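Morning!

This is the sequence you dropped in the shared folder:
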Amino acid sequence: MELIAITGGIGSGKSVVSRMMEVMGYNVYDCDSRAKGLMTGNSEVRQQLISAFGQDTYLPDGNINREHLSAVAFADDKALSQLNAIVHPATARDMQRWAGEQAQQGARVAFVETALLRTAGLDKVVDQVWHVTAPAGIRIDRVMKRSGLTAAQVEARIASQSLEDKVVDGENEIVNDGVSALLPQVMNLLQQSNNEQ
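The structure's back. Tokens below.
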């Protein structure tokens, strides 16, 4: 089975590409939503987060206190590294288990959507990378519209992902600038994958 990462910085449009894959019948592991599930549903991860960031990390109903965790993690590089050191290994293990299940079920191709491909070490376990890009101004505008964050808050999140923003050698770029059509780019990459199998 070929495991393909769909990556890109916040607001680049990687989720749009992931949804396209799902509509075409492919399975996609969404690292962000799975990580959030592990943060609330995995007792070991919960305990580590409480030890690192305090009881305020969780709301009385057991859900993540996003305001508290975001304020702590995105304001301090050391805290962000600590958060990543707890969540990324747990997510990587869960993703590899999922990929094994996909292969056992006979999938020829499966996808992993992640904003933190290199930071989480997932670049070492995927066969191919589709890197979705968009100009910074478009990304900031997209995130502000969907999340209610200020431009400065979005810029801080983009800065925290700077390692992930550059398309490196061997990665396939998908340009999502609102001008270049996405579907032909995606279909071309799928065709290449099918030809290589």
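Headline: Residues 140 and 152 are 9 Å apart (CA to CA).

More detail when I'm at my desk.
O.
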